[in-house]
Amino acid sequence: MKQLYLDHAATSWPKPEAVKTAMLRALEQSGNPGRSGHRLSLDAARFIHKARHTVSKFFNATSSTQIVFTLNATDALNMAIKGLVKAGDHVITTCLEHNSVLRPLFALQKAGQIELTVLELQDGTVQPEQFAQAMQPHTALVAMTHASNVTGAVIDVATVSQICQERGVKLLVDASQTAGVLPIDVQALDLAVMACSGHKSLLGPQGTGVLYVRPDIELAFWREGGTGSISHEVYQPAFMPDRMEAGTPNTIGIAGLGAGVEFLQQVGLETISQGEKALAARLRQGLRQIKGLTVYGPESGVGVVSVNLEGFDSAELSVRLERDYGILTRPGLHCAPLAHQAIGTYPHGTTRISVGYSTTEDEVDAVIEALSELAKAK
Ligand SMILES: Cc1ncc(COP(=O)(O)O)c(C=O)c1O
């Protein structure tokens, strides 16, 4: 049976050949970057420098020094949230967040460090006016996802950014579901900080993530150690990106991430974006015709769609899709409990179907067909 991968929201698969080639080259040709002066150390530093430059250009950062390589989005979000908030701050977030935003924020709230407002769902997403209404004099940060990893609903980040700018509030965007899918210009959007996975639609390997930090933002840090720079000092360097990057980096993964982003640039983000938009629309439209199948979320959004089929638990449905049709999906709560509460699917969750750069129309049609068959058989 042919395997059909529809779990791109978890991680993209397969990775482009160019990613594998770049990783193999880095594996064969890397010493410890920035630590020694020999050939292999310099080669490793070049791989990272190149990837940082590529990622920086991709998001239109002012300088590649504002790009920090992290382990994943969770690492980047923890660095951002814990590095930005101060005792007594009011923070606004949304019910659509992943636990990598919710858990750090709820822990800070529980510790009495911050006051937290969680915005509810309105018309399938969170509306910019809700952010404006929630602002208080001591609001210091808005932390929001660009798109839901449960329903694909997109939040209008440009309008939220304007609202934040008018009030001098910092904006942190979790772009894990949109980086590599929707255009993101960190300068035009005036993002204070942006975090995303490197292994989802940026097409890098697992173990990679990206944190962008605006030049005027001084993130507090907790990870301290060797950077290969100013080694005579016993204090962590204050300059970027060394400030946020201590310890031997994931050179091989970062080389792969750089190649993933180059691949996106070669194909063209606009082409990828339009392709995924069309697939997402085809998927939503096809699924909505199936009797007994509930499709959650707004009419349009990125290519992440949640469903429940009458008579099936979400885990059972994912198992049947794999066993009977070779279709790989993700059931459950998707690390987003509040999003599931908001759409009424907590605690059982949904079966999530998510498309990516390698998905074809035939694959989308196959999942629609499979669910129609399962619906009829029940
Ligand atoms: C919206 C969102 N934020 C954060 C994450 C966490 O990403 P990572 O697994 O790279 O830490 C995910 C992953 O599913 C996500 O979808």
If you had to describe this structure to a student in words, what would you say it looks like?
The chain has 378 residues and is α/β, with parallel strands linked by helices. The protein has 2 domains: 17-267, Type I PLP-dependent aspartate aminotransferase-like (Major domain) (Aspartate Aminotransferase, domain 2), CATH 3.40.640.10; 269-377, Alpha-Beta Complex (Aspartate Aminotransferase, domain 1). It contains 11 helices and 13 strands. It has helices at residues 17-29, 39-58, 73-84, 99-110, 128-134, 157-167, 251-267, 269-288, 314-325, 337-343, 361-377, and strands at 4-5, 67-70, 89-94, 114-119, 139-145, 170-174, 193-197, 209-213, 293-296, 304-309, 327-328, 330-332, 350-354. Strands 2-8-7-6-5-3-4 form a 7-stranded mixed sheet, with helices on both faces. Strands 9-10-13-12 form a 4-stranded antiparallel sheet, with helices on one face. It is globular, with a radius of gyration of 21 Å. 51% of the residues are buried. Residues 72-74, 98, 100, 145, 149, 174, 176-177, 197, 209 line the site of pyridoxal-5'-phosphate. Pyridoxal-5'-phosphate (PLP) binds at residues 72-74, 98, 100, 145, 149, 174, 176-177, 197, 209.
Please tell me how large the radius of gyration is.
21 Å
Low-pLDDT regions: none
User: What is the average of the pLDDT values?
Assistant: 97
Number of domains: 2
Q: Determine the CATH topology of the largest domain.
A: Aspartate Aminotransferase, domain 2
Q: In the CATH hierarchy, what is the class of the largest domain?
A: Alpha Beta
What is the SS-derived class?
alpha/beta
Q: Give every kind of bound small molecule, once each.
A: pyridoxal-5'-phosphate
**Strand share of the residues?**
15-25%
DSSP E strands, number: 13
CATH superfamily of the largest domain: Type I PLP-dependent aspartate aminotransferase-like (Major domain)
Question: What is the CATH-assigned architecture of the largest domain?
Answer: 3-Layer(aba) Sandwich
* Major sheet characteristics: 7 strands, mixed
SSE order, one letter for each helix or strand:
EHHEHEHEHEHEEEHHEEHEEHEH
Widest sheet, order of strands: 2-8-7-6-5-3-4
